[in-house]
Amino acid sequence: MAQNNKQKLLKLLQQGIMAVVIPIAAPLSSPVLPTWANTSITIGNSQQVPSIQNIRYRIPAKFNQSSEFSEGLAPIKVGKKYGFMNRRGKLVIQANFEEVWTFSDGLAAVKLDSKWGYINRRGRFVIQPQFDEPNLFDDGLAAVKIGNKYGFISKKGKLVIEPQFDAVTSSFIEGLATVKIGDKYGYINKKGQVVIPIVFEDALFFKNGLAAVKFSQKWGFINKKGKLVIQPQYDAANLFAEELTSVKIGEKYGFINKQGTLVIPANFDAATPFQEELARVKVGSKYGYINNKGDLVIEPQFDEATVFDEGLAPVKIASKWGYINKNGKLVIEPQFDEAHNFSEGLANVCASSKCGFIRNPLE
To answer: Would you say 264 and 294 are in contact if contact means Cβ atoms under 8 Å apart?
Structure first.
């Protein structure tokens, strides 16, 4: 899988509450209906931040819906259909599809006549629509749903792992995929062989050689041989990033290292993994950020927040989204109804029932 698609998987965990079973990706299909407001705001030390009257869009806000760039192309909605545009905002794959996913390994899943297939960057079908559900390609394989079961296909559309799983909750990451049979989870290799028994109540994908698994209502961590290296003891767990991971102990969250030592006390109401040397935490009803020593380097003051990407993080104040830098300074004033992380230098934002892309001002 292309690196930025692996990062998307990480973000699904990093931006959400801990230890959830996640889809491999999400199709672009739901309508976006934001409204516009542009007002000055007050944060932190009560200094007034000037209102920005003219947003410099790299790609004008004219689409009904759009998503982040992957491999140089972004899905967009035009009318009731979906296509793809390039970084200049030009529609390069016509909006002929009912739903679409982002590109991965040179292919994108698209839905036509209620079935899913895959197109190349020229918009040509290389795998005809025939599947009930698609997923991203990862190192040449993608999970697909046929009837009520999931298997894996190659980039030529050949079925290489027969449909036999009730769910596939991660693609192949670090050589293993997380699968579900009945109500239990385990791991398979690219040959479809079960290499870690399907015995867990829940399971996340591997990151840095370890994966969080749930056993007897508690979360612990296994290595790629299936050995428990951190015993099940947590009420929620996450993936390791930058040598640490967030865990829930009782009603609070802290951080452990790969030896299972609690290195940042469980003092937070929510916490997600580190990215770009900062982790999002919640104190009371507000979000801020800590460093790997547990110091609050950006005080909790935001109503919602996500992880940092390309030096900036979307944050929500009252009903509007803007962007802060790693010093906690607002560099793009909150004024959007939706604001997504920067990817390939651009961020997808929505206002006045339309979506477009803004430049990363740090570049």
So the answer is: yes
